[in-house]
Predict the structure.
Amino acid sequence: MRIVFLGAPGSGKGTQAKRLMAERGIVQVSTGDLLRAAVAAGSPLGRQAKAAMEAGELVSDDIVLGMIRERLQERDAAAGFVLDGFPRNISQAESLEPVLEGLGQPLDAAVLIDVDPDVLMKRLTGRRTCSVTGKLLNIHFSPREELDACIAAGGTLEQRADDNEETIGRRLKVYQEQTAPLIEYYRQAGLLRSVDGEGGPDTVYQRLLAALGA
Ligand code: AMP
């Protein structure tokens, strides 16, 4: 299965992609995760990307396209992949097509995870990652036991540098202006599926499987 996840920041793309990876053996390719790793490593690419990420703007198409091209050539991606956070604009979507064609791996679907903007803000401001288990949690929505389990394991609940209100507002605006047009792009290509992204992660996952016919 080769799919693209569309959806605003906080729509649950990462959570759902990780579950598909764990349960279906499909590789999650998140340009956000790849960029954060490059920033943390202090690589030249990371240094170039850092300012745009902190401002909630998009990193240049060249940088992310290079990363995607490299990642999709790795062996594990041959079994299927879910692109999480890429493409982010029409130009990236157009550039992706010849890359996938060259690999002989065209997309099966583009899945929109649809969430109301008011819900997104609460999800994003509350989002945390457990420093020990890497589990994605939310201080507003996760069960108390799951939050406590992270602390009990010696972990801390870490917030992404760009999950503050000012940057979140900018990211949501960038999504509306640059990424949302991809919905129509993939609709016209006959690839679009839409999933209601409100509710708990399990509920959304079941809807996702149904939409993919999986
Ligand atoms: P994400 O984890 O997908 O929310 O991405 C975090 C940040 O990384 C975004 O706000 C952008 O600055 C950058 N980023 C991630 N994916 C892309 C992409 N496909 N194109 C440009 N910038 C990206």
